[in-house]
Specification:
Layout (H helix, E strand, L loop, with lengths): L10 H14 L1 H23 L16 H11 L1 H6 L1 H23 L20 H15 L6 H4 L2 H27 L6 H12 L7 H5 L3 H17 L7 H13 L1
The chain binds protoporphyrin IX containing FE (HEM).
Length: about 250
């Protein structure tokens, strides 16, 4: 294991360096392992459950069925009809989430196909994180009023607050670089760190651990790890089930 941490200084600094190293390296591996294995095991368990006695199919039948299942899954027609404002924020959130995954892939290396629309890293000019933060605040605040409050469980609030913290610390890193010209931690540093994780030869460049903004990366990754550890055991797993469920409904 290699890291650029300077020679240990005081006990306190050794502890801080170790905690930073644990969050940015082993905890990332553990949380991704739990996320993928936990999600797979949950899905296997759900699909092994006995079939629902009554048909879930909706009528009149619309063809092609797979296309209507995709429509129901990604365009939330029921929400659109009954809660248009929630629908706007749901669409905004899910589109930004898709772009966010692409943005994180680009943090590993330059990928030409993603640069079909030439853009600076992180994609979105910093607005992706901003829109996600606004959508998450909407999802959180609507749970403070009835009837949504009465239907909510504590887990809903924890998950939304956790996601909001992840998004805020991730965005701040980008806003500092892009909107305030901060150069202490660059995309090349992220790439050196993230590629070393991918090649299972973890390396922490000095800027990632010692620069003025490194605590934001550490907090971003820490909360992201917590989310990935928590997700397979949460209700949000429904997101993986919506497509097969809509396929069932569309026959
Ligand atoms: C649940 C998982 C995660 C979510 C929701 C998330 C969310 C975000 C958001 C919203 C941004 C800012 C986008 C913008 O600038 O508009 C961001 C940036 C970033 N994220 Fe994540 N992230 C997650 C996991 C991770 C993980 C696990 C790592 C690293 C191990 C990571 C590393 C980064 C880095 C390096 C940036 C770039 C900041 C910059 O542009 O300066 N993220 N993330």
């Amino acid at each position: 294991m290699r890291h650029a941490l300077s020679a240990p200084r005081s006990i306190r600094e050794v502890i801080v360096d170790t905690v930073i190293y644990f969050i940015l390296v082993p905890m990332v591996y553990i949380s991704f392992a739990v996320f993928f294995i936990g999600t797979a095991l949950r899905l296997i368990k759900i699909f092994r459950e006995p079939k629902h006695p009554a048909t879930l199919q909706v009528y009149p039948e619309k063809n092609p069925k797979w296309l209507w299942a995709l429509h129901d899954t990604f365009l939330f027609p029921t929400v659109r009809r009954h809660k248009p404002l929630l629908w706007v924020f749901l669409m905004l959130f899910h589109i930004c989430l898709g772009l966010l995954i692409i943005g994180h892939i680009e943090l590993f290396a330059e990928i030409n196909i993603i640069q079909v629309i030439p853009h600076e890293i992180f994609l979105g000019q910093g607005y992706l994180g901003l829109l996600l933060a606004i959508a998450l605040l909407y999802f959180l605040f609507r749970r403070f009023a009835s009837p949504v409050r009465d239907l909510s469980v504590p887990e809903d609030y924890y998950l939304l607050i956790l996601l909001f913290l992840i998004v805020i610390f991730g965005s701040e890193m980008d806003w500092a670089r892009r909107w305030y010209g901060y150069e202490g931690m660059t995309v090349d540093d992220y790439r050196e760190y993230l590629m070393s994780l991918l090649y299972l030869d973890p390396y922490l460049p000095e800027t990632v651990t010692d620069s003025g903004h490194s605590f934001m990366l550490v907090l971003h990754v820490f909360f992201a790890n917590l989310f990935l550890l928590f997700f397979p055991f949460s209700q949000s797993m429904h997101s993986f089930l919506s497509l097969p469920m809509n396929k069932l409904r569309r026959g």
